[in-house]
Amino acid sequence: MFSDPSVNLSKLGISHGMKVVDLGAGSGFYTLEAARLVGPGGRIYAIDVQKEILERIRTTGASQNLRNIEVIWANAEKIGGTKLREGIADRVIASNVLFQIEKPEEFALEIKRLLKPNGKILVIDWTAGSPLGPKIVFSAEKAQMLFEKAGFKVDQSFMAGDHHYGLVLTK
To answer: How far apart are CA 113 and CA 89, in angstroms?
Structure first.
């Protein structure tokens, strides 16, 4: 099975009314599923560096009557780069972004800045050796060390489909 956003998000404990940030929102699969989970009283912030991707997420969300999505063209690789205020998020999603990031330490610190105390992050990324994934991956072990160094604690580690690992960490 390929990575399933609804299954993976179930491990994050998202509930109605929460604020969730999807960093590197890409296809929007996680953004759209999270928007359903938080309901009309919650908010999803879809962050990406590609404007056309964000426009696609905005259009798809509107066509599915999801009015709780805010798209933001921003860079999560620098502290303050997301343009969101400190402590805004109950949850953060980082799916298939670590392998692309040039400044992982700053990325982890930006996530820490965004999260409320005891907030959680869901990290989904490619496993080594996947024929579908990139040649160079950001391993689960390396991701765990990165976030622990930034002050996070691992809640769980799991297989997030046939080609991905998953981590849930708490601030």
So the answer is: 9
What distance in Å separates the CA atoms of residue 8 and residue 26, rounded to the nearest whole number?
Answer: 16
Quick one: angle between helices 29-38 and 51-63, nearest 10?
A: 40
3-23 confidence digits (pLDDT tens) = 789 999 999 999 999 999 999
Q: Where are the domains of the chain?
A: 5-170
Both tokens of 95, joined, read: 């799916």
The answer to whether the Cα torsion of 54, 57, 59, 65 is positive or negative is negative
Q: Is the Cβ–Cβ distance between 51 and 73 less than 8 Å?
A: yes
Query: How many Å apart are CA 27 and CA 168, to the nearest integer?
Result: 21
Which residues are registered as beta bridge partners of 170? 120, 153
CATH class, range 5-170: alpha beta
Closest CA to 146 of 118, 115, 119, 109: 109
Query: Could you read off the pLDDT of 29-52 as tens digits, one per residue?
Result: 999 999 999 999 999 999 999 999
**How many Cα neighbours within 13 Å face the side chain of 85?**
2
